[in-house]
Amino acid sequence: MSVKWLSLLLLLQLTCYFGSGRCGKVLVLPMEYSHWINMKIILEELVTKGHEVTVLKSSAAILIDPNKLCTIKFETFPASISQEDFENFLKYLIKKWIQAAKHSFWTHTSTTQNIFSEVLDVFLKTCKEAVSNKRLMTKLRESRFDVVLADAVVPCSELLAEMLNIPLVYSLRFSPGYAIEKFGGKLPLPPSYVPVVMSELKDHMTFMERVKNMMYTLYFDFYFQIYDKKWDRFYTEALGKPTTLFVTMGKAYMWLIRNYWDFEFPRPLLPNFEFIGGFHCKPAKPLPKKLSCKVKSVGQLDSNTQCHRLHVLWRYDGKIPDTLGSNTRLYKWIPQNDLLGKTRKNKY
């Protein structure tokens, strides 16, 4: 889905509440690293459409830099964890997760769940610091936002949306075992023909593979019922009424899934789940002069010779291999989108 269509969806969501033709005020709760990079593309497009975007971040945020986005407002609240400690913590968990991917499904899954639990404990503390900050909450209420846009992988946004009494829109790629989509978004995922994410099973499963998929499903269901108890208690205290994390998440008006629908296994969908794969794609820009000359010279060489030699532009930053061929050029950085926008270029 293009960026224009994505903006239209959000605009339609906003107009349901404050009338057509008027730009809205969007409160954003992003995540770090690739999650923020994806979210930033959406925010920049919303700004070009005239919407007022405010990003709520903690003082420990890593990539979310207000100095690099002058068209977006930022609201920062103090966190007990320092930026350095938070960054080291996430790097440690990412390294641990990558190493676990080399092992069996159960080892990988168990490690992923432990990592998820550690991350959620940190964000639970940060969320408590945000909602207990009276100055911050007063300012957010007085700002009269029209919608909350957030990454669903980590809770807190749904609590703020509930406390501010405004609609919520989620952005998500997927969650372990599709647990968030299933329990929070009420998305049906029949284990008889919908393989659990990370299981490496196909949609055409044998009987034993279906049994295995059912075991995976029960494992994720059981685990998430345990970890969300902390959030259930916190949400009940914060809202002053009995509730749960997934009940609060279930009030989201729209789920924007960052993938193409045809890349997913066939499964039932709900009207408020929208696939937005490709929203980050942009038209190719002119190549840097040095790289452009190289690409043109390759084209001339191919047209003047009968042989079809493969020419390689390699993004590589390290010691030059002794066996490097004469048809290969090394670059510390390559604008892949711009390069692939040219004809007769392939990426491997």
Automatic annotation (TrEMBL):
InterPro entries, per database record: UDP-glycosyltransferase, UDP_glucos_trans
Of which family is this protein a member?
Belongs to the UDP-glycosyltransferase family.
* One MF term in the entry's GO annotations: glucuronosyltransferase activity
What membrane topology is annotated for this entry? Answer: Single-pass membrane protein
- Give the protein name, as stated in the record: glucuronosyltransferase
Q: Which UniProt keywords apply?
A: Endoplasmic reticulum, Glycoprotein, Glycosyltransferase, Membrane, Signal, Transferase, Transmembrane, Transmembrane helix
List cellular component terms (GO): endoplasmic reticulum membrane
Which Pfam family, giving just one, matches this sequence?
UDPGT
